[in-house]
Design brief:
It is a single chain. The chain is of the alpha+beta class and 487 residues long. Helix 10 packs antiparallel against helix 12. The radius of gyration is 25 Å and the shape is globular. The protein binds zinc ion (ZN).
Amino acid sequence: MLHRPRRLRSGATRRSIALLLLAVPLAQCAVNPATGRRELSLVGEGQEIQMGQEGAQAAAAQMGIYADSGIQRYVAALGQQVARVGERPDLPWTFSVVDDPIVNAFALPGGPIFVSRGILAHMNSEAQLVSVLGHEVGHVTAKHSVNQISKQQLLGGLLTVGMIVRPELQQYGGIASQGLGVLFLKYGRDDEVEADALGFRYMTKIGYDPREMAEMFKTLDRMSGSGTRGTPEWLSTHPDPGNRVEKTGERIAQAGPTVANARKVERESFLRRLDGMVFGDDPRQGYFEGVNFLHPTLKFRFSFPSGWKTQNSASAVIGASAQGDAQITLELAGTGSPQQALSQFLGQQGITVSGTSSAPINGLTAAVGTFSAALQDGTSLAGYAAFIQLDGTTYRLLAITPAQLMRNYDGAFRGTIGSFARLTDPAKLAVKPARVALVTLPRAMTLTAFNSQYPSTIPLEQLALINARTTSETIPAGTLLKRVVGG
Ligand SMILES: [Zn+2]
């Protein structure tokens, strides 16, 4: 998902977060308003808020914000309702939908909350959304990440990126996960149980049916068994969803009459909001056809050497040789000229230049340098740095391998750099993502029958999952169901 340049941020955000963590503030001992616990906090509220806001910028840059102002406003309004009944209503709460097909939701210190469009597509009522927002708000009101950071500092260690990287981000490759590393502290099981309890409290306080929280857990439970792509934060770091269904039942029983009036579900009105939402990967953000990478929005294409493994992350497109001993990465390199960008790159300490060229590549202004670089361990790397400009944006293709293998990969590297070109194929430029569509059942039928009458472009099992139905139960006439079309 290489996003548009304005969304991309790199090192600056990372470094400032690291610096924030380095500063050890005065310890404060205070009673946590949400949990009633007395706790030692090394992170003051001002610092907590600042960390979260820096993190929110990085998250938005890496994942992209889903470009639908209607759904953004809707989620934000609901989130604010939840936050208002929590114990820290005065925090600068924000609620955003990230452009991520993976089922996920996360909270950053001090108030920024994110849900993915992937998790929205798997929900079937407003009450389910409120339950997830409530859980995430609970992590913030209970200061779970703040406590986590304080504990780490008490142990004398600084947070190391590897320790806290959100596991599902690792699949995006090192670059993305490092940028987001400090943002995704892994909460303990107790923290998760507590966030569930707080979410339960908040949702019932504003009148939502807590049984829908259990329904959400059931969907997550089915997902974990279905091999659905990605291991969402909601599955990998959260308690077993099966237990959470039971636990929610216990909470309802214990709450007794106090939740009797919490009956708001808003199934249909919620589903209507999903109409037209992008489902799954969005090819507009770049996609692969074999080793060819095409980006219909930024209008370029290039090809990795055949047989290479490839990956499209939010901030880079990466390919690695089958043996893993050579790598080519495409990244955005600002709006300066290719020549400027190349000079800057080659001017870095430790780099030895063996040649440069400013011949255009497929008609595009370009500057290419061949270089070697000594590493601290005494070995050296060699490769090409190519800067190519298209429509005012400069792209960097960096191809590297251990110096002694340069001869083997020289042709492959040149091939990839030489393949960068403007994407002109109208069919590729017009590619569209799959989208959620809604159908009101004209008569009672099973999901299997529904799928043959109103076909989807996803497998029946996945359709069953997003509708929280089995394939064989009879669904009453008049029911609103999701299908997925196009893509
Ligand atoms: Zn959680």
